[in-house]
Amino acid sequence: MKIINFDNAATTLIDETIEKEYQALLNEHFYNPSSPHRGGYEVKRKIDASRDAILKNLNLSKNDYKVVFTSGATEANNLAILGVARRYKNRGKHLITTSIEHPSVLRVFYYLRDEEGFRLSILEPDQNGIVSLEKLMAAIDDETILVSIMATNNEVGSLNDVEGMVQIIRKYPKCFFHVDVAQAIAHRKLNYNLFDLFSFSAHKINGLKGSGALIMKSKISLAPMIFGGEQEFGMRSGTEDAEKDIVLSSTIRLAIDKLNSKYAVIKTMHDHLYDSLVKLEDDIIMNSPRDGSPFIVNFSLKNKRASVLVEALSNAGIYVSTSSACSAKLAKESYVIKAMFADERRAKNSIRISLGYDNTMDEIDTFLNTLEKILKEIMQND
Amino acid sequence: MINFDTIIIRFGELSTKGKNKKNFIDKLFHNIKSNVSDQLLSISKTHDHIYIGVNDDTDKLKLIEELKNISGIYSFSLTKKVKCDKDVIIDESYKILNEEEKLSTFKIKTHRIDKTFPIHSDDMNRLVATKILKNTHYKVDVHHPDYLLCIEIRADFAYIFVETILGLGGYPAQSMGGAMMLISGGIDSPVAASLLLKRGVYLEYLHFASPPYTNAAVIDKVKDLLNIVTTTQHKVILHIVPFTKLQEEIYKHVDESYAITIMRRMMMRIACQMTRKRHLLAIATGESIGQVASQTLESMMVISKVCDENIIRPLATYDKNEVIKIAKDIGTYDISIRPYEDCCTIFTPRQPKTKPHLDKVIEFESKFNFQALVDECVEKVETIKIK
Predict the structure, then answer these.
(1) Which chain B residues are Cβ-neighbours of A379 within 8 angstroms?
(2) Shortest Cα distance, chain A CAs vs residue B212, angstroms
(3) Angle at CA B368, nearest 5°, toward B367 and B373?
(4) If we measure between CA atoms, which residue out of A179, A199, A172 comes closest to residue A88?
(5) How much is the pLDDT for B351?
(6) How many domains does chain B have?
(7) CB contact under 8 A, A312 and B211
(8) Reported confidence tier of residue A330, pLDDT bands at 50, 70, 90
């Protein structure tokens, strides 16, 4: 059975060229870049070249920015937030974020509030999943040292106006702006020169798992989370995963290429999908805004259980994601949907379709046909 | 710990079986041989006991754990086998006791099973005790000794041991006929299964699946449970019934309050057909009187009426916390509480009937051709060999 993968926001298939490049590096350039011999020097050169290439692909100057390689966006988010908060807390102890950030951002903020005495402002989204500039303006003050807001929400695909937010934050020179771009880096054109720090994972963009980066302005120094050999400018110790760090530059390059060349195709697929789903108004209510990220479409089932639909789709070879657990006992609800609509049932029965550059229009149509068939068959269930 | 070289295995209820006793012993003998790791030196049987010989290389603790899990064993003792010679027995007994450190009082208990041995049990006790009293500082205490040394004198050898370990009890596996166990993945059915297995019943397992309402992970859960419960069984067969269509039809035609009762009746019909098909002698369930609406006596009566197979309910009189305790002891609890729905829990009617009326049930059932759907379920059963 051919699998249709509509769960790309969770993770993606590795690109073949990346895989080959990685394999070649594993066999040849595996040395420790800190080692004092040619093997080590070569690897160090390649890592540095990768840093430069990544910045170049994102239109950043290596004089202004530096790349800190991490194990992924979660670690990068943690490092950014803990790193800024702890390093700059003498300047102020107020932090701002939103209620629909990824857990690897939100939980760090809660930790800082509960354990390290920081004051938080948590901005709520509107029903389009967007946090308004007005709300940010109302919350920010002279004590604020960090604002962390995601560019694209991973559950509903809503797009925050992070570039617009920069204007507001610039008025507070003590304040740093961190942007989680995990779902945006291959999916949305952004001017990275505007951000102080931003983070992403390779495995969301057809790269390797356990690989990612925190890119930040050169002048920033962070309190490290991990101590040791002082790698990554003293900010992230540990022998470099040279092979992963080196292929990250190809991963980014491929991602930007696809963004430039194939975005329009995805947009067409998205619009067709979105508009077709809207027609199923007896069963479905849309959670994503129509003009959100074309890579993510989120909807809830009105009177059937999302977990049953997801299971049926899985049995039919179509992979999507959900917030509802396959069990009433867990009854996990999406805190993102809850924050947007304050509707518990809607939050417990949401389904996310997330596209990748390999998906096709045929797959969208197959999905829609299968969806309709399944919706007719499964029984109502509260 | 005594440096034992022989294990004596005793049967409890088996010894009351008369003619069948030999069969049971043979079965138990076979089960022990195939379940205990290959490290035994020897195994032999008489009409009273089974003897296992071990040596220094044997992993004794592992062996003890394995024996504790074999049904049909009433108790067993770790013994040192010695010549049936008075002086040898005295010396060995002394040696064993002398090696123990943390005691101050002891008692000797001799059992002269072979009456041709020249010395009476009492005399033997005295002889051994005397040697010990003379050579150590230990004292005799006949009421609450720190250390009880037992000596069994048989025709060929004498066996010295200190403790008797209780076994699982019950009957040897597969010595009592077979039954079809309904297994849902919840806490109760695996416990019911383990009780039946202990009693020597051969079980095949029947699980009702309703995809996509139930999730593929439940099947894995059932398999994991079976792996734990059947550690000493060699043949484990799981039948999975595709129940979705029938379940949907029930909910279409039957009033919500009767849906569970009728669903259970359909399950019982399917179970009956499967039991007959597999030449088994009974159906077994994890039901407990009054635990849920479908398990009141009234409900059980209405549900049982669909067929005349023998239905065994090992947990009928158990409280939930008693069942949970057993589940934790046998290691199924943590698996059972994995939060995947089975078809008993996916549609929970608001007020299921605790005292269903048979005539209402029959009226509902007459509204759709359930027999064809039941037959279809049986036809499409997927049978998997877990072992």
Answers:
(1) 248, 251, 347
(2) 5
(3) 155
(4) A172
(5) 83
(6) 2
(7) yes
(8) low
Residues B320/B289, Cβ–Cβ less than 8 Å: no
Alpha helices in chain A (DSSP H): 16-28, 38-57, 73-88, 103-116, 133-139, 162-170, 242-279, 306-315, 335-341, 344-348, 361-377
Inter-chain residue contact B340 with A307, CB threshold 8 Å: no
Q: A223 and A332, same structural domain?
A: no
Number of domains in chain A: 2
Domain span at A325: 4-9+262-377
For A141, phi then psi, to 5°, come to -150, -170
| Per-residue tens of pLDDT for chain B, all 387 residues | 567 889 999 987 766 667 778 888 888 998 898 888 666 678 888 878 899 988 877 788 888 888 998 999 999 998 999 999 999 999 999 888 887 777 788 999 999 988 888 989 999 999 999 998 998 888 899 898 888 899 999 888 999 998 889 999 999 888 888 999 999 999 999 999 999 999 999 999 999 999 988 888 899 999 999 999 998 888 899 999 999 999 999 988 998 899 999 999 999 999 999 999 999 999 999 999 988 888 899 999 999 999 899 999 999 999 999 999 999 999 999 999 988 777 667 777 778 888 999 999 999 999 999 999 999 999 999 999 988
Write out pLDDT tens, residues A12-53: 999 999 999 999 999 999 999 999 999 999 999 999 999 999
In chain B, which residues touch A (CB < 8 A)?
Answer: 211-217, 248, 251, 339-341, 345-348
Instruction: Compare all CA atoms of chain A with the CA of B341 and give the residue at the minimum distance.
Output: A327
Concatenating the DSSP letter of every residue in A171-197 gives TSTT-EEEEE-TTTTTTS---GGG-SE
Statement to judge: residues A230 and A81 lie in one domain: yes
Same domain, A164 and A51: yes
Our CA angle for A362, A366, A367, nearest 5°, is: 115
Please name the residue of chain A whose CA is at the shortest distance from the CA of residue B216: A311
- Looking at B166, B198, B213, the residue that finishes a domain is B166
* Matching residue, tokens 């390093």: A87
Contact (CB<8Å) B211/A330: no
| Helices A242-279/A16-28 angle, 10° precision | 160
Q: Which of A228, A256, A284 marks a domain boundary? A: A256
* pLDDT above 60: residue A5: yes
Contact B212 A329 (CB under 8 A): no
Instruction: Please check whether residues B206 and B352 belong to one and the same domain.
Output: yes
Q: Test B339 with A381 for CB contact under 8 angstroms.
A: no
pLDDT of residue A382: 60
**Which CATH number do you get for residue B58?**
3.30.2130.30
- Look at the block and give the residue holding tokens 């290429």: A257
Of the candidates B251, B339, B348, which has its C-beta nearest A327's C-beta?
Answer: B339
CB B250 within 8 A of CB B266: yes
CA B387 vs CA B27, B229, B234: distances in Å:
19, 12, 6
3-class secondary structure, A221: coil
Closest residue to B211, CB basis, from A315, A325, A329: A315
Helix (H) or strand (E) holding B34: helix B21-35
Q: A33: closest CA among A46, A23, A44?
A: A44
Q: Would you state the structure tokens that stand for residue B251, as one six-digit string? A: 């909910």
**Which tens digit of pLDDT belongs to each residue from A219-278?**
999 999 999 999 999 999 999 999 999 999 999 999 999 999 999 999 999 999 999 999
A 10 A CB-CB count for B349 gives: 15
Domain end (from B119, B135, B166): B166
How far is Cα B23 from Cα B47, in angstroms, rounded to an integer? 11
Task: For residue B252, give the chain A residue with the closest CA.
Answer: A379
Distance between CA atoms of A203 and B24, rounded to whole angstroms?
Answer: 61
CB A188 within 8 A of CB A218: no
C-alpha dihedral sign at B147, B152, B158, B163: negative
